[in-house]
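Hi both,

Apologies for the delay on this - the queue was longer than expected. I finally got the zinc ion-bound model through. Below you'll find the protein sequence and the ligand SMILES exactly as submitted, and right after that the structure tokens for the full complex including the ligand.
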Amino acid sequence: MTQAQIRAMQAKIGTEVDGFWGPRSIAACQRHLRSLMPTPARFPRQAGVRAFYGPNGVRGGYTPPTTTIRLPFTIYYDAQAVNTLSPHRLCAQSLLNVFNRLAAAFPTRAERQAAGILTYNGLYNPRRMRGNSGAWSMHAWAIAIDLNAGSNGNMTHWPARATMPLEVMECFAAEGWLPAGAFWSRDAMHFQATAP
Ligand SMILES: [Zn+2]
């Protein structure tokens, strides 16, 4: 993000507007997003996903139960148009709500394009997390979605370099989804149906 964008975000989340995204900005941003989340929490924390959602998917084996939702606008996986998604059935309605919120927050195609939300990089993927923890990725439950990965990579700092707008994160937070950029300071493409 640009300095101007970071300053605008600092003003919105009610912290010192100095263009420097330090611990106070991080805390204020997380407070802001938590304040939008439904209470009680709709989803478990990451440690509780197996108890809540059941087993993770395994390639060639178990597949989590999914529900197909029809999106209010077309998104794109590379050049391929995508009009439906199939998240885990326990977070499908909330993901549809997220997209309806995005449609309202970014009413024109140009705004959606600028926000990066037309670029879809995957949802269900029965794989383990990157790195050496060996733990399963939230994508293995079909409870995480990636958007605009090219500008919001796993090791790209948010918001210093990654571009995911706060307003996109607000749409996810309002449905109880965790926006990774604000809570992990990286991986801003990633949103998951867990409590922070
Ligand atoms: Zn992801």
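Main takeaway for now: The chain has seven helices and five strands.

I'll put the files on the shared drive as well.

H.
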